[in-house]
Amino acid sequence: MHNHRNTLIVGALILAVIGGLLIIVPRSGDADTPSHESLAAELKTVRRQIALHNWHHPESPYDQTIRPGPGFWKPLIKARYFRGAPMNVLQQSSLIVDSPRMGAGWVWRDGHVYGIDEHGRLYDADGDGRPD
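RESULT FIELD:
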């Protein structure tokens, strides 16, 4: 009787440990990782804030005439659309450039902002082949 009970307790403990590991071990799918979720949220915020700036300032919008570079975020920060330059968590960078590359956080192209993934490519959250 005791032997059967001990076996059940040990089996339950093993299942609890395995279940706990499944909860804390991160999933391998890129879109499910916290960093990808953070980038998607930050990208949404950046786009929203630039759209808000453009709505408030139609005489000087952020559009295809704006060039990316080190000073890109300064007017938006000065006007309090951002507290600081937005950080891309996958690249650990707030640098905005005109084409994707490692070490840069964002791409500004044709009046649109895109994130850069951990491979230095335009961020494609849904895997449809088009940057998000």
